[in-house]
Amino acid sequence: MIAEEYLKTHTVTVGVFLILAAKAPATVWKVHRSGGGVITNLEKKREYVYHYSFHIMDPAFGHMVIKMSGHPPFGAQVILNGHEYVAIAAQGEEIGFTKEGNCFTEIADPQRLAQVADAWPQQAAIGRLGQVCDRWIYSACLCFGLDLAEQERSGFCYGYSVYQAEYSRNLLFESGAQMEDLFDRVLDRTRSRLDIPAIRTIFGLKTRPHHTRKAGPPVQEIVIEKPRYGLAWFRITFGMLQVKAYTKGEHVLRFEATVHNTKELRCRRSLENFAEIITRLAGMADRFATALDCADIGFLPDGVLDALPLPAQTGPRRTAGVDLNKPRIRAALAAALALAPAPGGFTVAEHAAKVRQITGQAGYTTRQAAYDLRKLRGKQLIDKPSRTRRYHVPPHAARTISALLTLRDHVIAPILAGVRSPRMGRKPKIWTAVDRDYETLRIGMQTLFHHVGIETVTAAA
C-alpha cells in the first residue's frame, strides 16, 4: 500500500525507487567465540529480525519487490506480477487495454493479448524470470550486506524456487447486467451445493459504470484503482490451495487458483519447473469452473431414478444400490458434490469429515464413508483412478448428483409440504420468481391429487 501510494504521487524510472524496513521471522545463526576469537559454538535460531523490501521498477516486469533478510544467509523473497509483464508486452505490441489493478477489464484485441499471456510459462519466459532476479538481487539488494568483491570471493549465489503462485482465467461479457445476473444465480445455487464457506460482498454504488459505443475500445492503458460499484466474490480453500471466483471491472468474471505453498502441488518447486506449476494451477481453475457449472445446472439421464436403488458391481464385489430416501446416503452425495472442486480429489477421511460437518453428527465413521463411496462408485457417481486413494467426481456425475439433491430437497419436499395447506398463508415481503413457481405448483398439485384420489389432509377417524 505504501508503494502504491508513492507511485500515485511520484514519477519513477528504472531502478530502486523505495526501500521499506520491518521486522519478520527469519533463521539466524548465533556465533559464540572464545577469548582468542575461535568459534566454539554455532546455534541455529529463528528470531524476528529486520527485513528490507526493495521496490524496483523493471523495464520488462514493471513494479517488483525483493524482500531480503538483513542477517546471513540473507534469505530473499522475489515478488513478481505476471500481469505487469503482460501489460508491458501488450504496450510493446500496441494492443489497447483497460487494466484495473492486476486484471485486464477491457481489451481491444483479446486474441493477440491471449497469445502474449500464453507465452508467459514457456522456457524463454522462465529464462527471463531468472535473469530479472539476478539483475537486481546482487547489484541492488545483496550489496548492502556483501559488496560485489565479497560476493565474488565467497562464491555466494542464490538458487530460485517457486513458493507461491496464482493463476487466473477471465470471462469477458458484453453486458455487465447479464454478468451480474449470471453470477448472482451461480452464487445462490452453488452456495449450499458446494458448501462454500465464505461469500463476501464489497458494497459500492448500486449500479456499475457504463461505456458508450461511440467511445469504442480503449487505445491505451487505463488503470482503475478504486471501483465504484459492488464487488461480490467467494472462495473455497483446500489447505494451502485456494480457488476463488469474483466479478472485476464492468464486464469481467474472474476465476483464480492460488497455491500458498507449492509443495501442495506435489511437483518440483525449482524455477525450471515453473511451467508445470502453472499448468497444474490452470487445471485447478478449469476444474473449479467446471464444478461450478455442473453444480449450477443439473441433469438427470433417462432411467437413472429407476437404476439407483438396484445393486451394482464394483470390480469383483457386488454393492448395494443408492436409496435417496435415506438421510445418510443424501449426506454422502452432498459431501461428494461439496468436495468436487478439490484440486487433487478427496480421501475417505475427508469425505467422512465433510459428512459430519454437513449433518452435525459425530458418529459417521470412515468405515461408513468407505462403504457409501463404494456404492457411489458402483453407480458411476464418483471415480477412483487405479493405484490411488483419492476420489474424483466427473463432470457428468456432478450434474447428476446436483439434480438428484435439488429434486429431492427443493422440488419434491416443498411441494408435498405445500399441498397440505389448502390456502396460501401471508405473502412474504420478498416475493421472487421461484416463490411464484412454488405457489403455482402447489395449486396445480392440489388439483392433480384430487383427480387421482390422493388426500392431502388427514381424514378424521
Question: Can you walk through the features of this model?
Answer:
The structure is a single chain. This protein is an alpha+beta fold and 461 residues long. The protein has 3 domains: 1-79 and 121-158, no CATH class; 103-108 and 161-297, no CATH class; 304-409, Arc Repressor Mutant, subunit A. It is built from 13 helices and 14 strands. The chain has helices at 2-9, 82-92, 110-118, 123-141, 148-154, 176-193, 274-296, 304-307, 327-338, 348-359, 366-378, 395-418, 433-452, and strands at 15-33, 39-58, 62-69, 76-79, 97-100, 103-107, 165-172, 198-202, 222-223, 231-238, 241-248, 252-259, 312-314, 317-319. Strands 7-12-11-10-8 form a 5-stranded antiparallel beta sheet. Strands 1-2-3-4 form a 4-stranded antiparallel beta sheet. Helix 2 packs across helix 3 and helix 6 packs across helix 7. It is elongated. Mean pLDDT is 81; it is low at 203-207 and 217-228.
